Each structure stands twice: as C-alpha cells, then as structure tokens.
Amino acid sequence: MIGVLALQGAFAEHVKILDKLGYPHKEVRTKRDLVGVDGLIIPGGESTTIGKLLEWEDLADEIKKRAGKDLAIWGICAGLILIAKEVDSDYSLKLLDVNVKRNAYGRQLHSFTSSLSSKKFNNLEGVFIRAPKIISTGKDVEVLTEYKKEPVLVRQGNILGSTFHPELTEDTRVHEYFYELASS
Ligand code: GLN
Fold first, then answer.
1. Are 124 and 171 in contact (CB under 8 A)?
2. Ligand 1, closest atom to CA 102?
C-alpha cells in the first residue's frame, strides 16, 4: 500500500496517478494512517509548512523509526528537502544522505521543463518548480537521473529523492519504480 502524505502541497496529483495505475493507496494525515503503508510519497509544496505539520501530527517520529526499513520513502522537491541529511532549512527528517540547497535555480529559472538524462528511464522529462539542487551525494547514494550533469533523481536503498515533479507529466514510470521499491 502506498501512502501519500496529504498535509499540504501537490498530493492530489500523486493520488490521481496511483489511481490510474491501479495501485492500492491512501492519503496519510496522521500517525494512524501510516499503518499498513509500505511506501510513503512526500510531495512537493512548502517544506517549512509540511515540516511543522509533520511534528504537529506526531508523524515525524514514526516516519524516522520506519524509513529505510519497512517503509520506502519518495521525497519530491519540498519532500526531498524534508528528507535530506544536510539542507539549508531549519527542519529535516535526515533520511537521505545528500546535501540539498533550496530554491537553487534562482529567479529567471524559477520554474521550467527540460528533458533529463537518465540511466534508468529513456526520454524522461523534468518539471522543476522553485526546485532545490542536490549539491552532493553520500557514497551509498545512487544517481539515477541528471539535469546538466547534476543529480535530480537519487536512491539510497528504498529511499528515493527527486528535485522535479513526475506527477505533473503523463509519464508514470517513476511512480511504477517507487511502487516496486516499496513492494520488495
Ligand atoms: N521551494 C519550495 C520549498 O523550499 C519547494 C518547491 C516545491 O516543492 N515545488 O519548500
């Protein structure tokens, strides 16, 4: 069962894709909602807000306890900021060994779409919205996809992080890949 963290941000788009793929899924808002979930999508949105709500709902400790073990995680954009070990923000769950810089594309490239180079997925398109950059990756982190030679989709065990938004395209392959990670 895939859970979509539904506290703030772009969760509805993920739910739509999971519906389309026919994968069992539910929205997660409280600690109790996490029961039976094998993979949690932490969507894009506003990382500071989502971080505060995670603490409020008592979800943070439960996620930290299970992440990388019986709970696969996929953080997208703000979700990636929330799971990064090192980040220029006050709050993080510190689950994925990467260093991330928020809003790193500056003003003129606030939001853009570009084709990506990926050893895993052919012709993958990236939608970036006030995206962070992955500045460095730890030794156990595999880079799956790059934009201009910089990592934009990475994996460490069953934890996935992307700076772009696959839920805003028709391409469902990253969701399918996460489903496999969560099911294995
Ligand atoms: N800039 C946002 C933040 O720092 C992330 C943007 C997004 O998730 N699309 O939280």
1. yes
2. 4
Cα–ligand 1 centroid distance for 164 (angstroms)? 10
- Helix/strand/coil for 57: coil
The residue with tokens 């997660």 is 28
Given a cut of 90, whether residue 108 has pLDDT beyond it is no
Residues with CB under 6 A from ligand 1: 44-47, 77-78, 81, 102-103, 129-130
Alpha carbon separation from 168 to 35, 41, 54, 97, 104 (Å, rounded): 28, 14, 24, 26, 20
Distance between CA atoms of residues 125 and 115, nearest Å = 4
Provide the pLDDT for residue 43: 98
**Residue ranges of domains in the chain:** 2-183
Indicate the CATH number for domain 2-183: 3.40.50.880
pTM: 0.97
How many other CB atoms are there within 10 angstroms of residue 32's CB atom? 11
Q: Which atom of ligand 1 is nearest to the CA of 76?
A: 8
